[in-house]
């Protein structure tokens, strides 16, 4: 028997002979005499915690269909990433995305991609062309909001000049999409979705004022509007860029 274990036993005998050990002393005695048991127990707790954490974040999961995305991802607005393979004009224009899991593993190639719909918009024909030119083949970030049978409704962003640009706002600002009547505003209890909806409406109003895209054909330019545009163009040529951006002209 080792000197250490002998010393431990002697210490225990002293404690037991002096008085009845309290809870703390009992724990000390147990921990010193059952070191291996405690280590195994600690490793077991750590392993269980790791399994639970992996189950919740699904770092290896590659989502190929709407139903495969856990509902808790929607509740927590988990950001996901992927590459837009092509644009599908059906079901209100879908982005067919090759989802990129947090930790990639070797897999067999598949032609099945996750169908994503940009939240809150009805995309026009020009919008489809814009998506095919600007977004197709690019990596995007998307936040799932709602799962439908044929697609996932998401807030979609793309990096441009080292900034994250929301595709929905950009489409609305260009007049290449119209804010849908059944937009995410119906989820009024969610402040983030309400804020997104307000940004869409603001972008659409800007497009209407500029007669961009769809609004060029819907709203006939008046004399007052032409005068305002001429004034804005002159201001753009005179004022610094950052002031023009602040004035939103």
From TrEMBL:
UniProt keyword Transmembrane present: yes
Is Repeat a UniProt keyword of this protein? no
Instruction: Give me the segments passing through the membrane.
Output: 40-57
GO cellular component terms, semicolon-separated = extracellular space
Record key words, sorted: Membrane, Transmembrane, Transmembrane helix
Q: Gene encoding this polypeptide?
A: LOC105665719
Q: Mind telling me what this protein is named? A: Uncharacterized protein LOC105665719 isoform X2
Taxonomically, the superkingdom here is Eukaryota
InterPro entries given in the database record: C3orf33-like, SNase_OB-fold_sf
Which stretches are annotated as coiled coil?
none
